[in-house]
Amino acid sequence: MKVYMDMKLNKLSLHEKIGQLLMVGIPEESDQLIYHRMTLQKIASYILFKKNTPNAKATQSLTKRLHHMAAEAGISPILIAIDQEYGRVTRIDQGVTRFPAAYGFGRINNPDITYDACKIAGQELSDLGLNVNFAPVADVNSNPDNPIIGTRSYGEDPEKVAIMVKHAIRGYKDAGILCSAKHFPGHGDVAIDSHLALPVSYKTLEELYHAELIPFMAAISESVPIIMTAHIIFPKMDSKWPATLSPFFLTQLLRNDLKYEGVIISDDLEMKALNQFGPITDLAVQMILAGCDMLIISENLTHDVSVDNIYQALVKAVQKNIISESRLNQSVERIFQLRKTIARKQVSSEMINHPTHVEISIQMMREIFLENPDSHHFPVPVDPDRLLILTDVIEIRDIWPSLNNRILLVRNQSVETYQALISGKDEIFIFLSNICYLDQLEALQFSRHQKIRFFSLNNPYIQSKIQLPLTSYINLYAECLPLEIFDGLIFAKNNSKNQS
Fold it and tell me: Which residues, other chains included, contact 45 with Cβ-Cβ below 8 Å and sequence gap of 6+?
């Protein structure tokens, strides 16, 4: 069968070229729809989310089916992407080796360990039939109130983040998988989640060069194949458009000044940060004009964004010469070059979640967690009947199903309700990932004999905000150790091993 990539650019129809620009999600029970997109629209890039990847076996089955459908449609090889950052953003969490969040690797400050983790992760993703991972996060975690980056970043020091990003890219490359630095020009110093609204940064270009851009420049020096944009507006540089829509950021800064030659891909078009700028079909055209090569339409968030409408809008924009043929060809050529680098390999399960990989991961987790200077405060085993857990982490209910004293924090719950619950308990464990619940907790009256153990799961800055009489504070760096490990450390009544 003739490989689609062998076709010359000038032999492609307009509709075939437009198909190269889109990376779309996989709705459930979607074979007929995907077949339509592959055969008629020639869409050759797909992104998977947790709904598609309940475990390794299901993921492998899906990618095998997609690759087969692409071959039948004559558009092989296709891109199949995922956001498998580990920590907070983990799409496949069953049947693969688990790794710490990026912030944990920054804590170790050993670039070789970062390389090893990304190489193993990349090998397993490749064996599952994937060929693009939207990692590493190149953002600098510089704002304590940032609700979306936190432990997804390697840390607060731009130079350290840059070193980790470089080694992550090398690991993925040596595993034979494409990777992406994100979110350009930097998502770390904002206080709003761009999934929900438009973040604004008042930094100057000079300030970006001294912080946010340092990891991206390191990524470019490593020839990172893909850079993902941020839906953030920087009024001091472009008061009209957020970075994803901005010719200044994508063409002037990223292409011309930083000399980036790879593929620029948008963050998801379904994110609400874009809502105020006009119809999404018009914005898709503007993104290509600004310098994006590919657009992500996840069909995973709002479902308000139509792949077909955006496809037709791009076709019409070229027909009306709003997007010139030469501009379109630039992006298609970059995408073709990217797809040509995909290693053709047989999908294999041999090394997925291999015991050797698991042992390496456990050693990484132990080094991050047990070398944490706060870890000596880890509590000795306690009596579950004398313990109350307050948490905003729903999964804790699944991890300790036999423990009745677990209270899920709710924003509109009265302080009096929580006050009644904590009375009569010797130990209060607080597992918290969001700062927004601190005001409720700080309104409670604790007795002097109660021990308050605080476990921060996602936001490394929470400690600086706490005004509670803590017995101990332990930052877990977003599942650097699986929470299940606490079964043996905390809830074993007869365990005499002292963790203090």
Answer: 20, 22, 23, 24, 78, 79, 80, 81, 294, 335
